[in-house]
Write a structure and sequence with these properties.
about 140 residues; two-stranded antiparallel ribbon; Multidrug-efflux Transporter Regulator, Chain: A, Domain 2; single chain; 5 strands; 2 domains
Length: about 140
């Protein structure tokens, strides 16, 4: 059984037992450690991505970033991102003449944007059904 399969199996067991911590056995030392369930899920995700040859990065949620880095995360242009900052859609601070934003604020905005898009798409789908447009 691969390490990914073992982790998935263990996660199912823990979720079934409704535990907040996961006990892992380290085979080389016969030592066991307990880690929070969230940390276990993150570990499973990291190992899964590594096994698939994908790259990933861990960034602290309170990490500051430039407007270009934040724009890249949202997949928008830097000028558009600056407009979002200037219209108070995303909080920022100035360091000299440079704007700095927190990763968590960028991700919060992205979540809100996705929810708004879903709500608007649901509305349009309902209207199309009501008008019998058969999309």
């Amino acid at each position: 059984m691969s390490s990914i399969e073992s982790l998935k199996k263990r996660e199912k067991q823990v979720l079934k037992e409704k535990k907040d911590v996961v006990k892992l056995n380290v085979s080389d030392t016969n030592e066991s450690i307990e880690i929070p369930l969230k940390a276990f899920s993150l570990l499973k995700s990291i190992i899964g991505n590594m096994a698939e040859g994908k790259s990933f990065a861990l960034i602290l949620a309170d990490a500051e970033m430039s407007t270009q880095q934040a724009a890249n995360i949202l997949k928008v242009s830097r000028p558009h991102f600056v407009k979002l900052l200037e219209t108070s859609k995303i909080p920022f601070k100035k360091v000299g003449s440079h704007r700095r934003v927190l990763l968590k604020d960028v991700l919060n905005y992205e979540t809100i944007l996705k929810l708004e898009r879903r709500k608007n798409l649901d509305f349009l789908a309902k209207e199309a059904q009501d008008l019998n447009l058969s999309y």
